[in-house]
Specification:
By secondary structure, this protein is α/β, with parallel strands linked by helices. It contains six helices and nine strands; from the N terminus they run βββαβαββαβαβαβα. α2 links the parallel β4 and β5. The longest helix has 17 residues. It binds S-adenosylmethionine, ligand 2KA, iron/sulfur cluster (SF4) and magnesium ion (MG).
Length: about 240
Amino acid sequence: MSLRISEIFGPTIQGEGVLIGAPTVFVRAGGCDYRCVWCDSMHAVDTAYRHQWQKMSAQAVWDEVRALSGGQPLTVSLSGGNPAIQDFGPLIALGKSDGYRFACETQGSVARQWFAELDTLVLSPKPPSSGEVVDWAAFESCLTMAQARPETVLKIVIFDETDYAWAREAAGRYPDLPLYLQPGNPDLDPQQSVDLAACTDRLLWLVEKVTADRWFAARVLPQLHVLLWGNKRGV
Ligand SMILES: C[S@@+](CC[C@H](N)C(=O)[O-])C[C@H]1O[C@@H](n2cnc3c(N)ncnc32)[C@H](O)[C@@H]1O
Ligand SMILES: Nc1nc2[nH]cc(C(=O)O)c2c(=O)[nH]1
Ligand code: SF4
Ligand SMILES: [Mg+2]
């Protein structure tokens, strides 16, 4: 069984959420069951880019991760696209036998048995601005699959007031999950440098909302990689 891989890169630092700042190697899966209008990784979603994706065996992916990390165990970040539409179980098994850890980012639309083998599961349900509608039954199946095994966290992207209200509602259903909020980035052109002042303004807007509402369960974070490298690919 081969994997559809858009890119493998690193080591870099995890730029988002619970593992922010941690050195990591990314394995970006090709293909997604969603089409979020503001997706920053369309090259791993839109089938127009499928000629850039590679069919690779789990062993071939693992060899590349090992080479990039110099054989020194770290946390591997599975992202995409939606990694949950493929079988990453064999890759995780290979990595764990070498002492590596695994985190996975997914929207929570497809549950997989291999979620239970992860160290960190980041569930990122999509707010209204994405144009997608969350299937909460599927989302709950992801939680069931993970059970108590991996550290499971919520990460919600917020673009506007409607998203914010939606996030409060959504997070309210899962009071036991650690909660990370990140402002949405509307500047997606990888050739264009990011407007750092605008990034800061969006972050400040969100911080002010959260503190004014005394929403103390939330942790508000920027996308650190966007601050450092903009929308450059492979970092
Ligand atoms: C590219 S997605 C891939 C994994 C999975 N499909 C998902 O959405 O969780 C990785 C993370 O980037 C976030 N993201 C995507 N586009 C973004 C944008 N324009 N601004 C802020 N976060 C974004 C997603 O919400 C998700 O948390
Ligand atoms: N450094 C870095 N951190 C990230 N966190 C989530 C990313 C993603 O695109 O899934 C990402 C990414 O592409 N780069
Ligand atoms: S679910 Fe994730 S990868 Fe898929 S389109 Fe949305 S943000 Fe992009
Ligand atoms: Mg990204």
